[in-house]
Amino acid sequence: MGVAPYETPPRFAKAARRHLLRDPPNNGEVRVEEGGPGHRSPTMPALITNDTTRYGWAAIVLHWLIAAIFIGQFVLGVVMVRVSSQRTAFELIQLHKSLGFLLLGLVILRIAWRLGNAVPALPHSVGRFERRVAPLVHFALYVFQFALPLSGWALVSVSMLEIPSMPFNLFLMPDLPLAESDTAESFWTSAHWYLAYAGIGLVALHFAAALRHHFWLKDTVLTRMITPSSDHSAE
Amino acid sequence: MVARIFGFAAVAACLAMPVFAAVALSDAAGSYTISPAGSSIRFSVGKAGGGGLAGAFARFKGSIRIDNNDVGRSRVNITIFPESVATGQRRVDAFLRSDAVFDAANNPEIQFRSTSVKRTGDTSALVTGRLTARGKTFSEKFTAELAGLKAGTIRFHVTGKVLRSRYGMDVGTPIYSNVVDFDMTFTGRRG
What confidence tens digit (pLDDT) does each residue in A140-164 have? Predict the structure, then answer.
């Protein structure tokens, strides 16, 4: 922390000092850097987007927000069809629908962000097998997080119960243009159910892999999804 | 006060509907038992985006007493058995019977006991009464329209709006309206 005159994490101290002194962005880059090899000091706006060495805040926040909603939706889905009170069940199902629409919106945003941003390279600790499999798993995770809310939307759209969708009681969400029938409803119910269990299985695999990287291989695969941090071993 | 002399049904018959003119006051006044065959209790609840949930109660009982001298002293008592609710969707029926709405297992009856009857026109009256559902009682108003009068049989078309939230049945609002529209026909047979 040598240069920083007060007790502030080096990255933020650097950004603050640069702002105060109106230094050009690259001036003093190396001189101030004492936070270890994993730390660089980009300006704050640059931390939002990804670059080839690290994830930015937008990707990180979307990742964890979607992860929390996705896992929460699985638990909610399992619980809501098992509670004995019909009133509680109805209300949990409406909450599940609301969160599903929120998830769908966030996933669309996330896919757009992913397509319009750099993808950080994998660290060298990632082996040949994982290099092939991880992108497939990640692609499958995107497919599931998109297909799950969509199949739920299809399910409520074709249901003979014709219960309108009103996310968080804010606005009326139209149904998908699909024909209503009991047959279609049971099809989409099954589809939603299988997708949910397969999806959560994939999330478990993804989670186990992240833990393996962090505790076994002791690399940056997990930590770089927690805060924007460059891993020079990936370059 | 013509109304006082002739009574609700008789005045209705004499002034508005020539069909009923032949019916004497002594024929209209009296006690009637509601006959399920010629009666229905239908309801609907609007929902967001249009349309709504419509259903009916298949089982109910009741009586109508039309006072000979004073329409205002006429009485209407209705008991509905919510277990008999039918919407055409078995899952919806089960939901309505459950603790989410009627809780029919613990509250097998919905009761209406009139407290006042006021004439509002030649063939219409405003019926105010105590509605009890799920252990909660509130005053509700219904409009009754004389729809038929024959020897020994009287028929009314009754409509009204009830706020379900007051009876602990607010589940599903605001997706489904808080207002329940009732559309009922009661055929009473003397006796």
Answer: 999 999 999 999 999 999 999 999 9
For chain B, say whether A170 makes contact (Cβ under 8 Å): no
Q: A87 and B174 in contact by Cβ < 8 A?
A: no
Strand B52-57 relative to strand B40-47, pairing: antiparallel
φ and ψ at residue B181, rounded to 5 degrees: -95, 125
Does the model's ipTM exceed the 0.95 cut? no
Calculate how close chain A gets to B100, using CA atoms only, in Å: 4
In this structure, which CATH number among 1.20.120, 1.20.950, 1.25.40, 3.30.70 belongs to the domain A55-234?
1.20.950
What phi and psi, each to the nearest 5 degrees, are found at residue B27? -80, -35
Q: Domain containing B163 — which CATH number?
A: 2.40.128.110
Q: Are A90 and B171 inside 8 Å of each other by CB?
A: yes
Cα separation of B13 and A13, whole Å?
A: 92
Range of the domain at B46: 2-190
- A contacts of B91 (beta carbons < 8 Å): 161
Instruction: Specify the pLDDT at position B7.
Output: 52
Q: Express each pLDDT in B39-93 by its tens digit.
A: 999 999 999 999 999 999 999 999 999 987 788 889 999 999 999 999 999 999 9
Q: Examine residue B108 and say whether the peptide bond preceding it is cis (omega within 30 degrees of 0).
A: no
Which pTM was predicted? 0.81
Condensed to tens digits (0 to 9), the pLDDT of residues A218-228 reads: 888 899 999 88
Nearest-CA residue of chain A relative to B97?
A: A86
Query: B182 vs B8, which has greater pLDDT?
Result: B182
- Which chain A residues touch B95 with a CB distance below 8 Å? 86, 90
Q: What is the spatial distance between Cα B105 and Cα B100, in angstroms, rounded to a whole number? A: 12
| Domain boundaries defined on chain A | 1-41, 55-234
